[in-house]
Structures are given as C-alpha cells and as structure tokens.
Design brief:
With 263 residues, the chain is of the alpha/beta class. The protein is built from eleven helices and eight strands. Helix 1 packs across helix 11 and helix 5 packs parallel to helix 6.
C-alpha cells in the first residue's frame, strides 16, 4: 500500500508545487512508482509535468464530485514511474459544492483509497489555503510535508497550519503524521537565510529535514518547458537537492528498493 503525503502551506510562493513535482520525480528516478495528485485549481503541478490544463476534460474535480474512477484519468508523464491525476480550474467551485454534503471532508480519501495499492508514493499538491480541499487532502494523507521559504516571513502562518493539522488529527484523521518541514529557496549568500534556517531548526528540531532546497535557476526554468528538474537538468543543484530529499524520505520510512541482482 502506497504512502500518501500532502504537501501543504497556506502561504503562497513557498515551493509547494516545485516540491511536489520534483520530489515525485526524484522518487520515480529512484524506481518507486509515484503519483502526483494536483489538488490546486491553478493546476501548476499539471502543467509542470507537461500536461496542458486547458486540454484536461476530466480531472480530480470529477473524481471528487461525480465519483469518476481515478484510474480512468491517470496520465503518464515523460518520467518513467511518474503518473499524474490532473487538475482543472473547475476545482475552484468544488469547495462551495461540497459544503452541504455529508462527510465532505472525506471525499478525496474515498478517491485515493481506490488507487493507493497501485503506487509506492502518492503526493498531493495542495492549494495555498486552508479551505475544504486542503482539509480533504490532509484527511486522505498519511503525513504532511510543510515547505517553508528561507525568508523573513517564513514562520508567518505556520502556527495556523499546525493548528489545522491538530484539528484534522483530532477529528478526521488520527493517523496523520508530520512528515517534516522542508526549508526551500535557500541562498547561502544571505545572512537572513542562515538566520531563518537556525530559527526554524531551533523551534522545530527533529521535524526539519536535513535536506535544504537551494535557490536554483534551473528549478525555475523547468516548468516553462513542461519538465521536472530530473528531465530538465539532472546535474543541476535543484536535481541533487530533490534526489537527496527523496533518499531522506525513503530512509525515514525505511523503504529499500532491491536491485535486480538482489531480488
């Protein structure tokens, strides 16, 4: 059964989508069958792996609202072992439509349960909000990863997100763990960035990943080509960072992929 990791932070521009697509690609490169679920109406994870959201006819929205079988809309990407459940702008309306439905917080969980056995990892790219779709993602997930930008307002709103996670744990998903806090957009030339790293590590200690994602031009370029960093430039610092993060997650979850010679 695959592990479901929601990537969430209600603060925008912290590297959620960049992390979702490139961590997923890193896990795929390390031979783990991985699925990205794009749960953001902006559909940046969809376009970031080379799928044009304007051409998406059936998305996660139809799976949640109309009980469409997610297996019928899973899209293969150019990276082996990496698939996508795409998003569409229609997802904007889902929160309003879900308000009066029974068990509205568990609708995404029902979708994911149908495909959980088909993958080693399922990563959910959440929207920059703490709305009903994000709560659905947290309710469906085994753990949550929190990207935090290495800038002045890094800790702003983090307490609110952690409080939301506690509420979900208490009322909807007692098994939800915090996978870790990921420091992103690090620039080692800036004293401020170093101070933020120290502050986050002081506050959250073992919750913080050892891997830090550096600012990297190639990471910014890759989505404009519809590529993950693994296919855009596997030798770049961004690719090295996300491969290291993938290895750290595998180690943390004690998952070892046997080589063909060992099988």
């Amino acid at each position: 059964m695959g592990k479901v990791i929601a990537i969430a932070n209600q603060k925008g521009g912290v590297g959620k989508t960049t992390t979702a697509i490139n961590l997923a690609a890193g896990l795929a490169v390390l031979e783990h069958k991985t699925l990205i679920i794009d749960a953001d109406p902006q559909a940046n994870a969809t376009s970031g792996v080379g799928v044009d959201p304007r051409g998406v006819k059936t998305s996660i929205y139809e799976c949640i609202m109309d009980d469409v079988d997610p297996r019928t809309i899973i899209t293969a990407t150019s990276t082996p072992n990496l698939d996508l459940v795409p998003a569409h702008i229609d997802l904007v309306g889902a929160e309003i439509e879900m308000i009066n439905l029974p068990s509205r917080e568990k609708m995404m969980r029902r979708v994911i349960e149908q495909i959980k056995d088909d993958y080693d990892f399922i990563l959910i790219d959440c929207s920059p909000s703490l709305g009903l779709i994000t709560v659905n993602a947290l309710t469906a997930a085994d753990s949550v990863m929190i990207p935090v930008q290495c800038e002045y307002f890094a800790l702003e709103g983090l307490g609110k997100l952690l409080n939301t996670i506690k509420i979900v744990q208490a009322r909807l998903n007692p098994g939800l763990d915090i996978e870790g806090i990921l420091l992103t957009m690090y620039d080692n030339r800036l004293n401020l960035a170093k101070q933020v790293v120290e502050e986050v590590k002081t506050h959250f200690q073992q919750m913080v990943f050892n891997t830090i994602i550096n600012r990297n031009t190639k990471l910014g370029e890759a989505p404009s080509f519809g590529n993950t960093i693994m296919t855009h430039d596997i030798n770049s610092m961004g690719a090295i960072n996300y491969l290291n993060l993938a290895r750290e997650i595998l180690q943390k979850n004690q998952i070892v992929k046997l080589s063909e010679a060992e099988k």
